[in-house]
Prior knowledge:
The chain has about 100 residues and is mainly α. The chain has a domain of about 60 residues: Winged helix-like DNA-binding domain superfamily/Winged helix DNA-binding domain (Arc Repressor Mutant, subunit A). Strands 1-2 form a two-stranded antiparallel sheet. Helix 3 packs across helix 4. The chain is rod-shaped and about 70 Å long.
Amino acid sequence: GAIFGGIIVWIFCKKKGVPCQDSSGRGKKESLIKKQALAKSANKQKILELLADKKKIANNDVEKLLGVSDATTERYLDELEKEGKIKQVGKTGKHVYYQRK
């Protein structure tokens, strides 16, 4: 009975164009992960666009631009630096800024 019921649900989903998923919610989780990845990519692109307008930016500039936390800002800047798109000038503190490579 359970297999037959599963087949009926699958057919219903296909006809209605509804994405079928298992009871674990994996489809929802994958959708959320894709949305987060797209948002992250868009935010990193905004940082690069800000650097096109300004020659150098600080952590606070990115926080204000994106409306994200200090930790998120640092993560984005670190990833862009590891990707070779920007470079950090200075070691720590308020004198640190970032430039395009």
